[in-house]
Design a protein that fits this description.
Elements: E1 2-5, H1 8-18, E2 26-29, H2 35-49
Parallel strand pairs: 1-2
Amino acid sequence: MTLTGRRKELLEQVVLEAGAVVEQALIVPTDVRDPASVRALFTQTKEAFGRLDVLFNNAGVSAPRHRARRPQL
């Protein structure tokens, strides 16, 4: 299993909380906005496990918060 995100410390915490055996979890800090960082993620995953079977992408950007206006009655 490869876990990726921007902050290594949080990824390490996820591994501990999930009970994953450290030797079976690859942590690769990655910024998905940087193509070189994404290439390094795939390279390290292939080197560690030989292939990629499943990819789950949960990266996103939140829209700015704003208050909806109430319609005038």
